[in-house]
Amino acid sequence: MEHQEPSGSDWIAAILDGPVLRVWRMSGRTAQDSAEMSLSEDTPNRAQLTDALTALVQPWRDAPPGDAPIPVLLSGYLAAQPATDWPTVPSLPLPAEPITIPCADPRLHIRAVPGLRQTTPTPDLLCGAETCLAGFLAYTPDFDGVACLPGNVSRWVRVSAGEIVSFRSFLTGGLHQALADHSVLRHSLTAAPSAQDWDETAFLATLDDAMAHPARLTAALFGIRADGLQSDLSPVTAQARLAGRLLGAELLAARPYWRDHPVAVLAPTATARPYVAALTHLGPAPLLADAAAMTRAGLDLARTGRSAPPRPTATGSPSARPGTNRRN
Asked: What residue ranges of the chain have pLDDT lower than 50?
């Protein structure tokens, strides 16, 4: 039996980003409210996921008994179906129908966007990034280049003619977090740097050295701790050196993607900052777009089955803009 959505355009957008579940109460393409929750598992099972979703959207579930359930579109859920069943690239970002996730609450109709997989030249997976790219390409349909999606796992995605051609994933963010939290480097770093705590000079110098001397990676990482014990190395500078060392290794490996191609960085401003600074240092400034807004747009496409939303107006559009960190 075909699912019938409630009258009007109210629905819920949901993103599972590692252990963090974020939801938005949507009216059409406009976010009206939001909430988030940290889960105990990076890859929750169905019961854990649906229980968390049910709790998060409790204030928004005002449909009386008998009314059609509220549509929930979810991105980033790795366990929605086996990865071997995902579409392979090259592919449109959203080639398959969302997968229904059974939920005990009859007022919610949850569907998850399937990911994409790559078998050659290197086996790889996208789960969540494809939805973000669908939204980005809907607003920038003529984009032909590379999208960079930083995060716990960063992705470099080659896009051409509206399709995802190939991609490569890097565990840079997860490695940074593990080193900062669980290695001896934790004694040298600030626990939670603010937006102003950023030593770009140290970051770029370390980035250059990391790309020029990749074999020194692990030795240079401990060098941050050794320098901190023997000098007045500040925690902010230590953070910048750790970021520059790891991102330099990533950019060196990802050079075939970003060199000689237009690049768009899809991420929150704070997450994008080192990538924008590094790419601007190495070449033209990339475009910058908010990943959450692009993912919500992609979820709306999955919800409605449209290939693209109505073209945005010049005012209030979440379209990409040039990165603000430029080399002087």
From this structure: 1-8, 309, 312-319, 324-328
What is the rounded distance in angstroms from the CA atom of residue 303 to the CA atom of residue 157? 24
Q: How far apart, in Å, are the Cα atoms of 291 and each of 48, 76, 193, 262, 319?
A: 25, 13, 22, 18, 11
Tell me which residue has tokens 């603010």.
Answer: 194
Closest CA to 239 of 282, 279, 276, 196: 196
- Interatomic CA distance for residues 325 and 328, integer angstroms: 9
Could you tell me if 103 and 50 are in contact, meaning their C-beta atoms sit under 8 angstroms apart?
Answer: yes
Q: What is the pLDDT of residue 65?
A: 54
Helix (H) or strand (E) holding 92: none
Share of the chain above pLDDT 70, in %: 87
Q: What is the pLDDT of residue 305?
A: 86
Phi, psi of 140 (to 5 degrees): -130, 65
DSSP states of 243-291 as a string? HHHHHHHHHHHTHHHHTTS-EEEES-HHHHHHHHHHHHHHSSPPEEE-H
pTM equals 0.88
Residue 291, token pair as written in the block: 């990943």
Contact 129, 155 (CB under 8 A): yes
